Amino acid sequence: MKFELPEKASVETLEIDAREVEAMLQGPKMDLKPWPGAQVKLKDGRILFIREARLDEAPKMLTYMEKIMHVDHDFYDIVGARVYSEILGWYRSRLKDPYTLVGLIDGKWAGFANGRLMNEDINISLHTMALLRGGRIGAVMYYAKAYYGFEILGNKEWWATYESYNGWMRWGLGMAQPSYPWPDVQHELGGAKVYYVTKKYWDQLIKQYVRQMAGADLDFNVSDEVRKANEELIVPDEILV
User: Is there a contact between 127 and 113 (Cβ–Cβ < 8 Å)?
Assistant: First the structure.
């Protein structure tokens, strides 16, 4: 779009460094406290180590999510597409204040949980996935990221929505989550209804419920042996969702 100049300009062609534009596109980042890493002993005896994903691991994660996009049951196709975009948004700095947690068993990628902060008070839950069967890995990952939001980041509200019937049954109904009036308040995942948990509700009831669903508590005293065994993220060969 061009308009004629209302006044003479000494320089009519302006050059701009793309790095200056990038500063506007990204905006200032919040100073998020790191997830310290935690382990959980699953019911089958395996140790699930939950740590922050590293940015250099994003390409491998994207390759796996491409396969999930083609799974035609329980809405995994749309979940795969959305998780792909979220990982890519994190990788390309096009997602505001994200956090990305991976659950690993001897290095093998077994669980995924991510979200982002709208502001200091509101934590937007995006997706939680179990990539390996058994052990209630999905529940453990959900517990870990909710714990991260409320206990470590000090958020006051947790916003979620659900694409699948199973997800709504376990977490929406299971946690008796109230919802904001729709369409006045919409979740960013497709403009769906926002189900929420307050910090008070978390302390009163939800924390214990999710811990029971996970079947074990988070152990932050992670041994060097477990950390070393899970330094490298190994993407599963098979799709087991």
Answer: yes
